[in-house]
Design brief:
Elements (H helix, E strand, L loop, with lengths): L5 H4 L10 H4 L12 H9 L8 H5 L6 H9 L3 H9 L5 H7 L3 H4 L12 H15 L14 E5 L3 H12 L3 E5 L8 H4 L8 H13 L3 E3 L10 H7 L2 E4 L5 E2 L12 E3 H12 L25 E5 L3 H13 L3 E6 L25 H4 L3 E4 L1 E8 L5 E14 L2 E7 L5 E4 L2 E4 L3 E3 L5 H5 L23 E3 L2 H4 L4 H20 L14
Parallel strand pairs: 1-2, 1-4, 2-3, 4-16, 6-14, 7-8, 7-14, 8-9
Antiparallel strand pairs: 5-15, 10-11, 11-12, 11-13
Length: 497
């Protein structure tokens, strides 16, 4: 908790943002930090609630009231130590997490919840500024070699934990730099890549080896890794995008969101967005641009929002975003009671910058010109029927078809499964009914003895915070497999409790 009466004295305040008219001209982060006095007030709102539901709301099991109290007392090293005991990368989650912990905040029953995510970001950034974040090099090495395949949040978390256990960890990444989705799927205006580079440097100083442009199964032999390593962690993510196989799908101008976002991220980084197509992921043979185009984003999630923000910065003539589901309510309803995560109306900073949003819309056809380029699409409105208040089935509304002019469509409808070609097929890794790697949540072990899986590759498309949690929990099981016992932190076994 913070101040015993803080929740009665202060209300939730959001940090200020650079004006939309200004921030659309650059790709830098634009959320300003709290002033020290305001940060103190926000931490003070954490109440002595008895049972802190935020613990269970957080996939990492962050010890939230304790670090809030430390922030209130301005005990920054203590706050950092508490936070980093459960979260390897709070600089990531403090920027891009949808904050399920806040949905579980007891104060949120009848007031705005505590600003947990923003406080988390301030803790780690202040810790870096004050020099509290230092490489932790293991004193002893076990002699065990581990290959982590994939350097997204799950792979990085698994690598960090296994290295702390004293194992020699090598991370294989098919793209030119580590980070996976963090680097190539999330725009710089939400997560500047120097934040990732700062963490990667720390991990390297701690002893982790990163091998990039190393596509296991393509230019790196998986059989060599299985022979040379004592354990392998598969953390390649869920990377097959959901497609929209309707007439006109082959037209020039219809692309998956990740093709679009990765190009822009590489351009911001000064890299060649068309290089290494045979090794890297999501590389096209031509540049995409929203400049002066009418853009339609199909998909209403965070990736769709990132496409909106990127299109605004590229100078799109107009942006329209479609969502198949009906418009969500503004606040919790009876079907989403506290402390569950509420599916309520969400307006992101990208939407604030300019975007027409349409709900309950299905795309029927992509329409091209005589040269094979996209010029419009055909849509139809949907009528949803509810089952116990939840949208369950829909029918097309007669006479609601429309033709919408557009030159660029970005498909942001999520991901269905990990890629099978290469590692999974070569090793004959078992898959579950959804096409993900079959490995239980408690053991993370595949059907091959020394091969483990975590993150979206195992659980399916999910949140960055869940990926970090999976990487941490998987690391403990790998450590137990190699050593018989593990002293690594986990949600079920904490050194602080």
């Amino acid at each position: 908790m913070g101040k015993p009466t803080g929740f009665l004295e202060y209300t939730r305040v959001s940090p200020s943002k650079t004006a939309a008219t200004e921030r659309v001209h650059h790709f830098n982060e634009f959320i300003q930090p709290f002033e020290p006095k305001e940060l103190n007030k926000q931490a003070a709102r954490c109440m002595n609630c008895g049972v802190p539901f935020c613990h269970s709301g957080c996939p990492l099991g962050n010890i939230i009231p304790e670090f809030n109290d430390a922030v209130y007392r301005e005990s920054w090293q203590e706050a950092y130590e508490i936070l980093s005991s459960t979260n390897n990368f709070p600089e990531f989650t403090g920027r891009i997490c949808p904050a399920p912990c806040e949905s579980s905040c007891v104060l949120g029953i009848n007031q705005p919840p505590v600003s947990i995510e923003e406080i988390e970001k301030h803790i780690i950034e202040i810790a870096f500024d004050k020099g509290y974040v230092k490489p932790r090099v293991p004193v002893l090495r076990t002699g065990k070699k581990i290959a982590v395949i994939g350097s997204g949040p799950a792979g990085l978390a698994a690598a960090a934990q296994l290295n702390q256990a004293g194992h020699q960890v090598t991370v294989f990444e098919r793209d030119e730099k580590p980070g996976g989705l963090l680097r190539y799927g999330i725009p710089d205006f939400k997560l500047e890549k120097n934040v990732i580079d700062r963490r990667i440097t720390l991990l390297e100083e701690e002893g982790i080896v990163f091998k990039c442009n190393a596509n296991v199964g393509v230019n790196i032999s998986i059989n060599d890794l299985t022979r040379d390593c004592n354990a392998i962690v598969l953390a390649g993510g869920s990377t097959i995008p959901r497609d929209l196989p309707i007439p006109g799908r082959e037209l020039n101008g219809v692309h998956h969101a990740m093709h679009f976002l990765k190009q822009q991220n590489k351009l911001v980084a000064g890299s060649d967005p068309l290089a290494k197509k045979n090794i890297e992921s999501n590389v096209l043979d031509h540049l995409l641009s929203a400049k002066d185009k009418h853009v339609v984003v199909i998909g209403g999630g965070d990736t769709g929002s990132d496409c909106v923000g990127t299109s605004n910065r590229q100078g799109a003539a107009s942006i329209t975003q479609f969502e198949l589901m009906p418009k969500p309510p503004e606040s919790r309803s009876t079907i989403m009671p506290w402390p569950t995560y509420p599916m309520v109306m969400k307006t992101t900073s990208s939407h604030e910058e300019g975007c027409e949003r349409q709900w309950a819309v299905a795309t029927k056809e992509f329409i091209g010109d005589e040269t094979g380029n996209l010029k419009a699409l055909k849509t139809v409105e949907l009528e949803w029927k509810s089952d116990d208040g939840r949208p369950s089935k829909f029918t097309e509304r007669p006479g609601s078809e429309k033709i919408i002019p557009c030159e660029l469509v970005l498909l942001a409808m999520g991901f269905v499964a990990p890629e099978k070609d290469g590692i999974l097929d070569t090793l004959d890794i078992e898959l579950d009914d959804r096409g993900n790697v079959r490995a239980t949540e408690k053991e993370f072990k595949t059907n091959i003895g020394k091969i483990f899986a975590c993150g979206d590759m195992r659980r399916g498309q999910s949140l960055v915070v869940w990926a970090i949690s999976e990487g941490r929990e998987c690391a403990r099981k790998v450590d137990e497999f190699l050593m018989g016992v593990s002293y690594l932190e986990s949600k079920d076994s904490s050194l602080l409790v």
